[in-house]
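Milestone 3.1: sequence recovery, worked example.
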């Protein structure tokens, strides 16, 4: 199995696609903390982080249901997660 895996949600959507900012999704505009999804949606097998937005699969799936405090914490951890991802790729 490769170190990077793509997951799908019901309806054939990629995991991060559900929280990608789009004009036709009115609920997205009400979120104070928006997703950092960049439409890559592939997960590193060792760290569990998306190589695009640095969230876990569960974080991607639950993003819209999370409180802004939790979303902010995930975004604040991006630097640490990026370092961990680079470390495991070596």
């Amino acid at each position: 199995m490769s170190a990077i895996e793509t997951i799908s949600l019901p309806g054939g959507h990629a995991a991060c696609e559900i929280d990608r900012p789009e004009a036709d999704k009115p609920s997205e505009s009400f979120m104070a903390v928006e997703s950092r999804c960049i439409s890559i949606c592939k997960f590193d097998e060792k760290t569990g982080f998306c190589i695009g937005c640095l969230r876990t699969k569960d974080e991607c799936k639950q993003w819209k249901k999370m409180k802004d405090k939790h979303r902010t914490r995930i975004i604040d951890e991006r630097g640490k997660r990026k370092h961990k991802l680079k470390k495991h790729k070596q």
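The longest helix spans residues 78-89. The longest strand covers residues 4-6.
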